[in-house]
From TrEMBL:
In the N-terminal section; belongs to the purine/pyrimidine phosphoribosyltransferase family. This is Uridine 5'-monophosphate synthase. Pathway: Pyrimidine metabolism; UMP biosynthesis via de novo pathway; UMP from orotate: step 1/2; Pyrimidine metabolism; UMP biosynthesis via de novo pathway; UMP from orotate: step 2/2. The chain holds residues 189 to 452 of 452 of the full protein. GO terms for biological process: 'de novo' pyrimidine nucleobase biosynthetic process; 'de novo' UMP biosynthetic process. Keywords: Decarboxylase, Glycosyltransferase, Lyase, Multifunctional enzyme, Pyrimidine biosynthesis, Transferase. It comes from the Eukaryota. The lineage of its organism: Eukaryota, Metazoa, Ecdysozoa, Arthropoda, Hexapoda. Substrate binds at D39, K61, S154, R203, Q214, G234, R235. Its EC number is 2.4.2.10, 4.1.1.23. Residues 33-250 form the Orotidine 5'-phosphate decarboxylase domain. One of its GO terms (molecular function) is orotidine-5'-phosphate decarboxylase activity. The active site is at D92 (for ompdecase activity), K94 (for ompdecase activity), D97 (for ompdecase activity).
Amino acid sequence: TSKATIPFETRAQQAPCEVSKLLLKLMARKKSNLCVAVDVDQANDLIDLAKLLAPHICILKTHADLTKNFTGEISRQLHALAKQADFMVLEDRKFADIGNTVAKQYSGGCFEVSRWADLVTVHSLPGDGIVKALEEENAKIEEPRGCFLLAEMSSEGNLITTEYIKGSTQMASKFPKTVAGLVCQSLLLADQPGIVQLTPGVRRGEIKEDSLGQRWVTPEEAVIEKGGDVIVVGRGITGAKCPEKEAKLYQEELWAAYEKRIAI
Ligand code: 5IU
């Protein structure tokens, strides 16, 4: 049976990756498969939005490098809020260098990502060393940590091929403790219930693309047709008049789609 029709609670029991297990349990407990991409310019807006959106999300996704004043104090606040309000933090860093460099970018530098992000995104392009680097760094941290490997992208004209996708899924299978899931646009590794599928490019309404190659599908398409477990919504929520109300709408619609999917 495909993982798409197995409830998150059941999948949690079968997940070899600790963060994946915790995430799947969190989603079931909170009835939320919504991840909001909070791509905002100012760190204080990031914290304000995190507080507002907290009840509706399973993951808050950051891009620390596009937010001004993203200091150690901000990351500590975010981390504390995540624990208190029961969500996870995903830094969408898309690491893409050799392992030795990524280890330093992940644990050190100006953001010290491994201190505060439960999860990070990483390109499979450089090969196994990049995941090995994260695995070694994670061994130094007490809290569980994991990553999402990029298998597919939502953007028009991206260079990812079927061979590349296959290579990424094989890499994910090689590091079951560290790889919590895949960022993808279709159901992959359907026989591995612990591999959580993160699907960006989702927006309610009539707008289907932006001027820079992003493509959006509806919440229901993302969950049912593409097999997305955690759905990433950015501007659909952060650009709304009332982000909190909008987040609630997305949460309800996404959860209903998930319930429909597991009933199939
Ligand atoms: N994101 C994508 N597509 C991808 C990957 C990441 O949109 O294939 I990998 C990120 C970029 C942005 C968020 O932070 O997800 C989507 O935001 P919008 O819903 O505003 O397009």
